[in-house]
Amino acid sequence: MSAAQQKVALITGVSGGLGEAMAEVFKEKGFRVIGACRSEPAIELDRWFKTDITRENACRELLAGVREEFGRLDVLINNSGKGNYATWEEFSEVEVRDLFELNFFALVNMTRTFLPLLQESQGTVINIASVAGLTYVPCMGPYCATKYAVCAFSDTLRAEVKGYGIRVLNVAPGRINTTGFSKRALGRRTPPDTPDGGSNPPGLACHVYRAYQRGRRSVLYPRIYIFFLWFTRSFPRTYDWAARKLWKL
Ligand SMILES: NC(=O)c1ccc[n+]([C@@H]2O[C@H](COP(=O)([O-])OP(=O)(O)OC[C@H]3O[C@@H](n4cnc5c(N)ncnc54)[C@H](OP(=O)(O)O)[C@@H]3O)[C@@H](O)[C@H]2O)c1
Predict the structure, then answer these.
(1) How remote is the CA of residue 235 from the centroid of ligand 1, in Å?
(2) Could you give all domains of the chain from N- to C-terminal order, each with its CATH number?
């Protein structure tokens, strides 16, 4: 297969954590992988664009680069994001806007900018949302709000772009131990020591790839979080009580 025929994936936030793991898997599966983030990734990629995706024009510059150097895009993975560990009261308006800039507006801008290229390839948009976008987690309120917005974006976009042959996969990871997430999270509270259900970045990456191949609409990983969702929706008062204890509110 010539390089021009090889599929191309663009992944934001490949300098660690889930982005790095997904880059590894897509590379293994024969994709040419492009990364976009601010610090240099440890893994070898076909191309790394050093960029802050929240910057004005960042998405347009990326599009120009990808068009010129690769001429196609088959998969866009919107992965860059950060969390927060603080109550609404402790969190400033600037911090709320900061989270929305990265987790939501940059993701929307990236997607809208790359839609024409994805239309040409009948490609796929993969949005990394969170279980915190499917149910609420006290002391992570602004983060939840951004991820609920991502889920709404994925669901509405999916229906809108179906006619172009573009697919949209919404990914909701539960807790996964990546060193970056806690380090980058805004706010001073310490999250409770909850079990991670055996989840890990390579496991999530393999799940995402399988779901992509099968044309799935969404991924929940690890699956055990289905019980967490059921519990929070069925017994919200008990959940609130437990969350208040765990977060020492
Ligand atoms: N880990 C979890 O438990 C978990 C659970 C659910 C959902 N998620 C979601 O999964 C995604 C990845 O999380 P992670 O745990 O892998 O976090 P991470 O290790 O902190 O990685 C975050 C990535 O985002 C990039 N990034 C941050 N600000 C950026 C900016 N302005 N422009 C471009 N890239 C930027 C970082 O790269 P640079 O700093 O080099 O720019 C980094 O590569 C996030 O959207 C997160 O919300 C994570």
Answers:
(1) 31
(2) 3-246 (3.40.50.720)
